[in-house]
Specification:
It is a single chain. The chain is mainly alpha-helical and 243 residues long. The protein is 67% helix and 0% strand. It has twelve helices and no strands. 23% of the residues are buried.
Length: 243
């Protein structure tokens, strides 16, 4: 029986979410595994961004899948199926926080509306390819980034995870979190600013210490300059200066 289910799943991995849902509703319930394996990480990250606890996030993902399965016939297709799933886990996570009397603000009352000058500064992060030194320090940077994301204000953290970690569009994140698209943009912008400042401070680097002109480089420049001056003087003594 297990082999038959595995064969069924393997032969249908290329189906769209909507096609999988249709087959599950038609009685091929084993295919629901495709949905779970497809979105486990995204749902876990979403839940984790809200409750900030590994074990609770895992429980919430399971709860969300069970609820989605039970109400699969209610998926109307007005949004992406993945967005529908995320909304379920977001509501479950917020419910968990309310039960524990921990407040999480996802309202859309305009407090986060973007100032004109802030809108002008909303540039995307540059993403240069890492050099070997950057790759060598990747683990430490990853740890610092995870801890810095963990410390973000609640609403900013969830938006950052959906937009930058899960790479959802602004519209998808807004739909999943049930806030306005402008709020998503503002909160993402502010999350970026906080992370930049936090990572900069935690790295223990002061601006006055950046790009220093150390002694060996200074010696080399001095030496090369004097060598070029000497060549120019020699040229003046014998003829026109060479370029």
């Amino acid at each position: 029986m297990a082999n038959a289910a595995s064969t069924l799943i393997a032969s249908n991995l290329g189906m769209s979410d909507e096609e999988v849902v249709a087959h599950v509703l038609a009685g091929q319930t084993a295919l629901f595994e495709i949905i779970m394996r497809r979105y486990n990480q995204r749902l876990y990250r979403t839940a984790r961004a809200i409750v900030r606890d590994d074990a609770q996030a895992e429980e919430l993902v399971q709860d969300a899948y069970v609820r989605a399965y039970e109400h699969l016939d209610q998926f109307a297709g007005r949004a992406k199926f993945s967005t529908w799933l995320i909304k379920i886990v977001v509501h479950a996570a917020l419910g968990r926080l309310r039960a524990g009397r921990r407040y999480f603000d996802f309202d859309d009352q305009g407090r986060d509306l973007m100032a004109p000058d802030e809108r002008d500064r909303m540039d995307k992060f540059a993403s240069p390819l890492p050099n070997p030194e950057q790759q060598a320090s990747g683990s430490e940077l990853k740890r610092l980034l995870e801890e810095s994301v963990e410390a973000l204000p609640n609403a900013y953290r969830a938006v950052f995870v959906l937009r930058h970690v899960e790479e959802m569009s602004t519209a998808e994140a807004a739909e999943a979190l049930e806030i306005g698209e402008d709020n998503v943009k503002v909160r993402l912008h502010r999350a970026r600013a906080i992370l930049q400042r936090t990572l900069y401070e935690r790295a223990g680097v002061e601006a006055t210490h950046l790009f220093q002109f150390h002694a060996p480089r200074c010696d080399r420049v001095v030496r090369n300059v004097f060598a070029r001056i000497a060549r120019q003087r020699a040229g003046n003594a014998t003829g026109p200066l060479a370029d």
